[in-house]
Amino acid sequence: MRQEFLNGCLVTFIEKEFFFQAKDMDIIARFQNMKNQKVVL
């Protein structure tokens, strides 16, 4: 759980230029439309 949270924070930090240009509602809609993905390891 912690690793997933940190990965999400790291992406927004590295790609901050993109997130400054993207609209909040577009980002929210994108994440809400994503489905859970399960992968067999």
Automatic annotation (TrEMBL):
Protein name: Uncharacterized protein
